[in-house]
Amino acid sequence: MTRTLGDRLDEATTGLPAPLAVVDLDALDANAADLVRRAGGTPIRVASKSVRVRHVLERVLALPGFAGVMAYSVREALWLVAQGVDDVLLGYPSVDTGALDALAADPVAARAVTLMVDDVTQVELAARAADAHGSMLRVCLDVDASLKLRLGPVVAHLGVRRSPVHTASDAGALAAAIARRSGVDVVGVMFYEAQVAGLPDSSPAVRAIKRLSIRDLAVRRAAVVDAVQSAVGHELTLVNSGGSGSVESSAADPVVTEVTAGSGLFVPTLFDAYRSFTPRPAAFFGLDVVRIPGQGYATAFGGGYIASGPPTASRQPKPVWPAGLSLTGREGAGEVQTPLRLSGDADLRVGDRVWFRHAKSGEVMERFAQVHLVRGTTIESTVPTYRGEQRTFG
Ligand SMILES: Cc1ncc(COP(=O)(O)O)c(C=O)c1O
Question: Domain holding 294: CATH number?
Answer without folding.
Answer: 2.40.37.20
